[in-house]
Amino acid sequence: CGQERFPVAVRAVYSYPRAQNVTWSSTNFKTILSWEPKPSADYSYTVEFSVAGGDRQRNHHCIRSNTTMCDLSVSLTEVKSCYSADILSEPPLGTTSDDTEFPHTTSPRFCPYQDTEIGKPTFNLTVHEDKKTITLHVTDPLTAVFKDDHQLSIRDIFSDELQYKVLYRKQKSTGTKMQMFSSSVIKMTNLDKGESYCFSVQAHIPSRRSEKQFGQLSATKCSHNDEEPILKVYSPAVIAGGILFILLVIGLIITITVIYCSQKRKALKSGAEGCPLRDV
């Protein structure tokens, strides 16, 4: 008799497991909320999010879903605000319920402007005629943020706060130097003439807390010096190997030529001995 006091729907609600290990991952404002475990056929997940102090909202892709992630990139439009989210454990899609409250788990706070990771920038090199100046043309990474149908770059969002850290070294050296620049067009001057240099670049946002100030490091690119001496381009062992190979090829050609000429002379001599002498 005691069991009949509670509707079946209420017992089902509180059998739904809560989401666990709720985390944010974000690069260039492409922001994913994820959690565990994967739901069974008996329940689903709905994500509700809100800016601090604001009303709760829903992303239509993340309502009664059987996945364990939700892309909120287009929903977190106020990039300088902070957000929180709730993952609700609800009945599956297509199932009705009279209940208005379901088990939920609240995410950590997420502030896009301060927390999103900055991805790897790309850049091209231009070597000047004096061979002592190299210009790096950095392409500011694009973000998942759009304004008036225009996709914004990290420069559009961070403006003057965006800097670039340049790591560089001579191509044959391991000693690395560093300089900071505020522009995306970076002129490296007073380099050693006749030397090739290697560069890598990463974004720097000094207003952030220390562990979030630097973005991902770019791939390394090296300049090429057309006038570089061959001893700097190739090691002595490689040069010696190349010379030895050339000498072997020349020796082989000479040997074949000598053998061929010797065989030909023998053939001519044999032919001459086989012919009778003519009368005078």
Automatic annotation (TrEMBL):
Residues 116-224 form the Interferon/interleukin receptor domain. Pfam families: Interfer-bind (PF09294), Tissue_fac (PF01108). The chain crosses the membrane at residues 237-261. One of its GO terms (cellular component) is plasma membrane. It is a single-pass type I membrane protein. It is found in: Membrane. Keywords: Blood coagulation, Disulfide bond, Glycoprotein, Hemostasis, Lipoprotein, Membrane, Palmitate, Signal, Transmembrane, Transmembrane helix. The keyword Disulfide bond applies. Residues 12-93 form the Fibronectin type-III domain. One of its GO terms (biological process) is blood coagulation. GO terms for molecular function: cytokine receptor activity. Gene3D superfamilies: Immunoglobulins. Interacts with HSPE; the interaction, inhibited by heparin, promotes the generation of activated factor X and activates coagulation in the presence of activated factor VII. Initiates blood coagulation by forming a complex with circulating factor VII or VIIa. The [TF:VIIa] complex activates factors IX or X by specific limited proteolysis. TF plays a role in normal hemostasis by initiating the cell-surface assembly and propagation of the coagulation protease cascade. Belongs to the tissue factor family. This is Tissue factor.
